Amino acid sequence: MITIEPSILSADLACLGDQVRLAEQAGASIVQVDVMDGQFVPNLTFGPGVVRALRPLVRLKLDVHLMILQPERFIPEFARAGADRIIVHQETCPQLAQTLGSIRALGLEAGVTLSPDTPPETLADVLELADLVQVMTVHPGFGGQSFLSDMLPKISRIREMLAERGLGTPIAVDGGIDTTTAPLAVTAGASVLVAGSAIFNSRASIAENFAALRASVEEDH
Question: Which residues are catalytic?
Fold first, then answer.
């Protein structure tokens, strides 16, 4: 089963609550909240207050992607705000196993993600601790970027690494996902597709965009 996970980075922030509700009505079971600090990535976005505001509006899961330095500083606050899963970057966590353990200790799912330049082997010692492994298929920081097709072998390699350990951990792909690139990511081994501008845009409704993206991966899988 392929999960389509809208990213609110591309949503209309003037009516964010309505946008997330429409995504839920379209069939989304989870949305991603992209948190950026202007240091690890060259952009500033959301804080715990956004998660806290969304929490009572929807039943779907709130997935917080921390693109920030020293993410351990904010993990408890995002947990209190109502996050269901927190994803941290391998590049920002010198004690990655400890950080993932601290997320799980709070009763949340723990995810780990890799920027494009980071080899999959850097996760070899923590795969058993991750509830999700996410591969960035753009350089983190801004929505609407083009899919980096040379990340497809990385997705396949992580799937092999998980299989070697007997793990069925889902692999998410984040960045440049649309009806053309989604099937490529799924073929490579992804089962979670994080999509921003392909879901939230002026070309069609959220429901229509969600349905089109799902159809693109259901035709061949």
Answer: 34, 174
State the Cα–Cα distance between residues 151 and 189, nearest whole angstrom. 12
Over residues 154-199, the pLDDT tens digits come to 999 999 999 999 999 999 999 999 999 999 999 999 999 999 999 9
CB 111 within 8 A of CB 172: yes
Contact predicate 34/67, CB 8 Å: yes
In CATH terms, the fold of domain 3-218 is: TIM Barrel (3.20.20)
pTM assigned to the model: 0.96
- Cβ contact 25:58 at 8 Å: no
- 3-state SS assignment for residue 192: strand
Model pLDDT for residues 87-97, shown as the tens digit of each residue: 999 999 999 99
Where do runs of H (alpha helix) occur along 64-180? 75-81, 96-105, 152-164
One-letter amino acid identity for 13? L
Q: Does residue 27 contact residue 5 with C-beta atoms inside 8 Å?
A: no
Q: Which residue has the tokens 């947990």?
A: 79
Contacts of 65 (CB under 8 A, 6+ apart): 32, 33, 34, 35, 87, 111, 113, 134, 174
Q: From its phi and psi, is residue 70 left (phi > 0), alpha (psi between -120 and 50) or beta?
A: left
Measured between alpha carbons, how far is residue 128 from residues 86, 104, 163 in Å? 16, 12, 11
